[in-house]
């Protein structure tokens, strides 16, 4: 029973790390990367769909994304969606859409660092909340006399070790993102 709780905690903490990576993908560095446009939604036949479902997104060079719509009629809608996203990008439209990435200024880099640190802090909070939930479940098992106090103490220590491991992983990924952002 305790092993199931530990496994569940690890699975949920892994999902927090996945969410962190998804959040980091939105934080742009100076290089072009297709994941920057992941959050862009495009109106398509009455509903909003992710950009990658109506176009191919590729890297033309280190500072330019190339967006090739599956349908020619979608060019203007995609252009508008990219402009209206909060990414601060200005696409250039022809047959395909080129999205040049401006070089990051020192101030922009610092703003991006703040966003990255905020994403990391949110991941840590999520991990700690998972720890709290699992420890509550373990205390319930103790209260219901399904486990002994020694089992509860051991399980609590194990959950803390798992939590520490995932918090350290968040810190490691944040350090890598910070190094990537500060690279000129």
Give keywords.
single chain; 184 residues; alpha+beta; Topoisomerase I, Chain A, domain 4; Gyrase A, domain 2; 2 domains; two-stranded antiparallel ribbon; 4 helices; ribosomal large subunit binding; cytoplasm; Ribosome-recycling factor; protein biosynthesis
For the biggest β-sheet, the strand order reads 3-4-6-5
The fraction of residues assigned to DSSP E strands is 5-15%
Number of helices: 4
Could you list the spans in which at least 5 consecutive residues all have pLDDT below 50?
Answer: none
Q: What is the CATH first-level class name of the largest domain?
A: Mainly Alpha
Structural class: alpha+beta
Brief write-up:
The protein is an alpha+beta fold and 184 residues long. It has four helices and six strands, in the order αββββαββαα. Helix 1 packs antiparallel against helix 3 (106-143), helix 1 (2-26) runs parallel beside helix 4 and helix 3 runs antiparallel to helix 4.
Protein architecture, described:
With 184 residues, this protein is α+β, with helices and mostly antiparallel strands. It has 2 domains: 2-26 and 105-182, Topoisomerase I, Chain A, domain 4 (Orthogonal Bundle); 34-100, Gyrase A, domain 2 (2-Layer Sandwich), CATH 3.30.1360. It is 58% helix and 15% strand. It has helices at residues 2-26, 75-84, 106-143, 149-182; strands at 41-44, 47-50, 55-61, 64-69, 92-93, 97-100. The longest helix is centred in the last third of the chain and has 38 residues, at 106-143. The protein is elongated and about 70 Å long. The mean pLDDT is 88. Keywords: Cytoplasm, Protein biosynthesis.
């Amino acid at each position: 029973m305790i092993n199931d709780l530990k496994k569940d905690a690890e699975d949920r903490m892994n999902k927090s790390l996945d969410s962190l990576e998804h959040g980091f993908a939105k934080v742009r560095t100076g290089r072009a990367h297709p994941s920057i446009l992941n959050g862009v939604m495009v109106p398509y036949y009455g509903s909003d769909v992710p950009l990658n479902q109506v176009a191919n997104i590729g890297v033309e060079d280190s500072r330019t994304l190339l967006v090739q719509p599956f349908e020619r009629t979608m060019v203007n809608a995609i252009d508008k969606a990219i402009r209206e996203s909060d990414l601060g990008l200005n696409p250039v439209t022809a047959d395909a859409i080129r999205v040049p990435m401006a070089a990051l200024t020192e101030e922009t880099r610092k703003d991006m660092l703040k966003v990255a640190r905020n994403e990391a802090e949110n991941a840590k909070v999520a991990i700690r909340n998972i720890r709290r939930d699992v420890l509550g479940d373990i205390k319930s098992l103790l209260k219901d006399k399904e486990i002994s106090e020694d089992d509860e103490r051991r399980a609590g220590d194990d959950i803390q070790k798992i939590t520490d491991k995932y918090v350290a992983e968040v810190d490691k990924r944040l350090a890598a993102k910070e190094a990537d952002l500060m690279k000129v």
